[in-house]
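Contributing new records

If you add data, match the layout below exactly. Sequence lines come first and carry their own label; structure lines follow with theirs. Keep one chain per record. Anything else will be rejected by the validation script.
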Amino acid sequence: MNEPQRTQSWFVPPVDDDPAAWRNFDRLYVGHEFCEHLLPTPADVERVIAAKPAATPLTLVTPYVTDAGLVRVRELADRFLADGAFDEWVFNDWGVFRLLRERWGRPVLGRLLTRQLRDPRWLSLKREAPQNHGHIDDLALNEDFVRFLLDNGVRRVELDVIPTAWQWLPEDLRGSMYRPYTYASTTRHCLTANLDRRGNCSSRIPAGCGRECLERPLVFRHEALKCDLFLRGNTLFFRNQWDDAAPLPPFIDRVVRTQAHD
C-alpha cells in the first residue's frame, strides 16, 4: 500500500538562511524548542514573512521558558498570532500552553512533552522486523491525557523516530515526525554560553547569551555509542540513521526537516 501524502515542513534556523531552501516545503517552522535565548525577534519573523512564498503557512515554535522567556513568547504571540501570521503554535512548556490556549491559532504538543525513549544506543541494535520502527510506548497518551488534549484543542503531537515497535496514536490525533536529528537530552544549563567571557561559569544557567552555540557545535564520541552526539548549546542530538529506512504509519501526516547539527 502506498504511503499517504505528507506535508513537508522546514525548520527555519535561528541564523541567516537562504529562502531558496524553503521553496519546496509546504510549511515553515519558526522559533526554537530548547532555548528561550534563541527565540526569534519580531524583526526575524518579519524577515521570514517577507521572504517566504505567499501561500506557505507558518508554525511558531516555543521552548520551555523562564518568566523572562514567557514575556518574549507573549510578545511574539501578541504580534504574530493575533494577526494570523502563524496559524498554529508548538508548545514545550505548560506555562506557555496556559498563556496561549484560549487566545490564538491551533496548539500543537511539542516533542519535549511527548514521552519517548530517546537513547542513541538504539542505533547499535540489529535491525529486526524492519516494519517496526519508532517507539512511543512511553508516550504519555493514556485515555485521560488524550481527553485533556482534545478538550483543549490539541489535535497534533510532535514525534521523533526511534527504532522499535510502533504504538498507534488515537484517531483524533495526528503526528509530525522530525528528521533527521533526534534530541537525546536538554537542560537549562548551557555549556557553550559565554565561552568568550570566562568570568561567567558555564555550569550555571546563563543570565545572558552570546549565541555561541550557533557557531560552536561540539561533537562527543564514545566507544559505547555507534553514532556521534552533537551539542548545540543546552541540547544533545544524534542523527537517527533509521529515519528513511522504514515506512511511517498513516497517522504521521507531516515530516519536519531540521537543519544540520554537524
